[in-house]
Amino acid sequence: MWSRTLCGYMELDRRGAELLFQVLTEREEKNSVAIASNESFSGWTKTFTDPRLCAAIVDRLTYGGNIIETGTDSYRLAQTRARAHQGA
C-alpha cells in the first residue's frame, strides 16, 4: 500500500501522512525502510499535499540512507516487450 501511495496514484490525506511520518520517526536508526517510487522527490507534494510534512518525510527517508535511481523507463513495460519479442 505504501509503495502505491508514494508513487502518487492517490493523494494521502494529512492524517495518513502524519501516521507515516510517525512510523518513519520511530524506525529511524532502529530498522531499515525501503520505499519505491516512480516519482522524484520534487513530485511527492502531489501525494503529500502539506509541503512541510512532505519535506519532513523526505528528510527522514534520506538521512543516512541510500538512494538508488533506476531511470524513468518502466521495468514492467520492458519485461512485457521482451516477452512479446521472444514470442514473435
From TrEMBL:
Domain IstB-like ATP-binding intervals: 7-81
Pfam families: IstB_IS21
Protein name, per record: IstB-like ATP binding protein
Organism: Lentzea atacamensis
